[in-house]
Amino acid sequence: MIQSVVKTTFKAYINTRANQIVLGANPLPTTLPQDTLIYLAKFTNDMSGEVIYCYPNPQYVVDRFSRFQFNASVNPDMFAGQINITLAGYYHYEFYEVYYGNKPTVLDVNNSPKDENTVLPVSPDNGVVQGLVAIGKMYAGEVSNEEEVQYTEYQEPSNTNYIYTN
Predict the structure, then answer these.
(1) Strands across the sheet with 37-45, in order?
(2) Domain that holds residue 119
(3) Could you tell me the pTM of the whole model?
């Protein structure tokens, strides 16, 4: 499970290599540029159904885990690793493998899939979504002192306000 706080930068540690699609379950060869295989994250809020896509930046992938950073921004840019999670609560996350062949990645609206269903024109510069490699839950907590709690405050009873029963 990923733990985060709304409106803040957070890191996620996920095992993406166990379900790696490109080149099977084998580690990537050292001759393949590291940024030709990247990951697209999808977060879906369990209550509202809001869906947020983002390419984490930076992405650090080793054999046992992948570390993804999501940078908080009020004006998010999914291609720059910026995200704006404003609703506290539980989210369902999915990570998709995006492959760029043997060419380094160019993350932008013209060269990168915006979601798991985007099909871009065939080109060595365009990424191709290979498939789903990780799923799970994320909890986004409230920012301290900004909790969304409603309550009614009543006056304290005076000393002469007693209730007697027989």
Answers:
(1) 2-5, 128-141, 89-99, 37-45, 51-54
(2) 2-141
(3) 0.79
